[in-house]
Write a structure and sequence with these properties.
Elements (H helix, E strand, L loop, with lengths): L1 H8 L10 E9 L2 E4 L1 H13 L2 E16 L2 E14 L10 E16 L2 E13 L3
Parallel strand pairs: 1-6
Antiparallel strand pairs: 1-2, 3-4, 4-5, 5-6
Length: about 130
């Protein structure tokens, strides 16, 4: 979970595909995103290009292991700074949100892989 969080903070998906199974399901904010590849190709990947920064704070994780599965619940605040876009006439702006995520991982060949991820958030002071 830490590797995934660090990648997002570094505005990259590099190295994240190995954290998920090929058929992992991803849900975000009430939407079925599909597989992790679908989520990256159609949502998060393009979105990261619009971010100047993405930082987590007040991060807490609860892990429950019941082999071969683990269940995680994450609570956090995050701050996104969106880049200015002269072509669209938008200025740089900051979004602050409170997020929660639940994930199911399965131990496969000695490695933990995410098989299900669900995130949601609410904007703060917006």
């Amino acid at each position: 979970m830490k590797s995934y969080k660090n990648a997002i903070q570094n505005l990259t998906t590099e190295g994240t595909f190995q954290l998920f199974t090929q058929d992992a399901t991803v849900f975000e904010q009430g939407k079925v995103e599909g597989t992790y590849k679908d989520y990256i190709d159609g949502h998060l990947g393009p979105e990261l290009g619009h971010f100047k920064s993405f930082t987590f704070s007040d991060y807490q994780i609860d892990v429950n292991v019941s082999l071969p599965y683990a269940y995680t619940t994450e609570n956090y605040l995050y701050t996104i700074v969106l880049k200015a876009d002269e072509a669209k006439g938008t200025k740089e702006r900051t979004i602050e949100s409170k997020g929660v995520a639940t994930s199911i991982l399965k131990k496969i060949d000695g490695d933990w892989k995410i098989i299900h991820s669900h995130t949601s958030f609410k904007k703060l002071n917006q």
